[in-house]
Amino acid sequence: MKNVVLLFLLASLAITCSAGEKEDPRDLFLNNYLDYCGQAYSGETRFIDLGENHQLDGASLVMVLEECSPEAVRIPFIVNGDSSRTWIVMQTPQGLYLTHDHRYPDGSQHANNFYGGYADITGSGTRQYFPSDHRTILDRRVRAANLWSKEFDHENEIYYYRLYLEGELRYEAAFDLSVPMDAAFRDSQR
């Protein structure tokens, strides 16, 4: 009888633990990209406070959800036809990571490349925050103030990319997810 009671208690504990476990919001966030993969979306700068005549002010913006899997997504970010920037969001053993891949026109790595950070614990399944990681800060001390945010607003079909410096919003781009771009136009931007 003791064995039956013990088995019952262990089974109840296992069910309770399973019911109490929730999927990590960082994993849920990465899965949002799968519905939009293989498409390009136009965007606009909605807010900018990065100095006068910044190249992102009033620029034509396009993001291409180029390669997507449950582990990683590559997003070329095209600014006025310049396709030298790619955002990469990936699941690593240390957690969800955002990095910025910058290239010269010949495809070689830009001197200022692969900076970013790991998602902190304040995000949700639709919004994540990526403070600068140790490597990024070592490469460029000034980036210690950086916090990047990516968000899916499913209700309004908008994708946001934001940059905060010392807690203040300094840049926001918004991409219209409701209308994928024509493939011919998208390819002409690359």
Instruction: Say how many strands there are.
Output: 11
What's the CATH topology label?
A: Lipocalin
Helix content: 10-25%
Total number of domains:
1
H/E series = HHEEEEEEEEHEEEH
Shape designation = globular
Number of helices: 4
Report the span from N to C terminus.
Answer: 71 Å
Radius of gyration from CA coordinates: 20 Å
Summing up helix and strand content along with how strands pair, one would put the structural category as alpha+beta
Strand content: 35-45%
Largest pleated sheet? 11 strands, antiparallel
Task: Give the uncertain stretches in residue-range form.
Answer: 1-19
Question: Roughly what is the average pLDDT, rounded to an integer?
Answer: 86
CATH class: Mainly Beta
| Architecture per CATH nomenclature, i.e. the level-2 architecture | Beta Barrel
Protein architecture, described:
With 190 residues, this protein is an alpha+beta fold. The protein has one domain: Beta Barrel (Lipocalin). The protein has four helices and eleven strands. It has helices at residues 2-20, 25-31, 134-139, 183-188, and strands at residues 40-48, 61-64, 67-68, 72-79, 82-92, 95-102, 115-118, 127-131, 146-153, 158-165, 168-176. Strands 1, 2, 3, 4, 5, 6, 7, 8, 9, 10 and 11 form an eleven-stranded antiparallel beta sheet that branches. Strand 3 (67-68) and strand 4 form a beta hairpin. The longest helix has 19 residues, at 2-20. It starts with a helix and ends with a helix. Residues 1-19 have low confidence and may be disordered.
